[in-house]
Specification:
binds zinc ion; single chain; alpha+beta; 6 helices; two-stranded antiparallel sheet; 434 Repressor (Amino-terminal Domain)
């Protein structure tokens, strides 16, 4: 690769911001750069903090793929209602359900009233017994908006640009 600052042929160049422009430099010229920049697959130049955030999101997404999960699952807000409705659909009273999943009736009463948050294990048992879903996938996208970014480029802007391309 060729350093865009001194023209030297080097095995590896680094993309840095030089006075607001993204330039590939050799290690020697790197010191002239104001801050390192990162180029995305789309060819957009990002400031390090923005790139870092996108990168960590990308990593999280990959980790999920490994585990075959499309997102983090979280207990739904209306779980008491879902449990009650699911139980009634199966024509069970609270005691029947308690027996079915090997819990005390008081546990069912508390969970259905929202007084008690079911443990993961209990959630699984209830989902299976009632054939319902008590968790929903929480997407981590769209919430990041970086302000006060030194270069004026925010992640929000980046996302907007990406969306326009679609
Ligand atoms: Zn150079």
């Amino acid at each position: 690769m060729i350093c865009e600052m001194c023209g030297a042929e080097v095995p590896r160049t680094k993309l840095v911001m030089v006075e607001g422009a993204a330039v590939h430099t050799c290690p020697k010229c790197e010191k002239f750069a104001s801050s390192p920049a990162v180029k995305t697959k789309d060819g957009a130049v990002l400031l390090p903090d923005v790139a870092e955030r996108l990168d960590s999101r990308e990593k999280r997404r990959k980790e999920r793929d490994i585990y075959g999960d499309s997102g983090e699952k979280e207990l739904v807000i209306d779980y008491p209602e879902r449990i009650r409705t699911g139980r009634q659909r199966k024509a069970m009273n609270q005691e029947d359900l308690a027996k079915l999943i090997n819990e005390k009736k008081s546990v069912i009463v508390k969970v259905e009233s929202g007084e008690m948050t079911p443990t993961d294990q209990l959630v699984l048992k209830l989902e299976k017994a009632l054939n319902i879903s008590l968790r929903e996938i929480i997407e981590d996208g769209a919430e990041v908006k970086i302000s006060n970014s030194p270069g004026g480029l925010t992640l929000g802007d980046f996302i907007k640009v990406k969306e326009k391309k679609k």
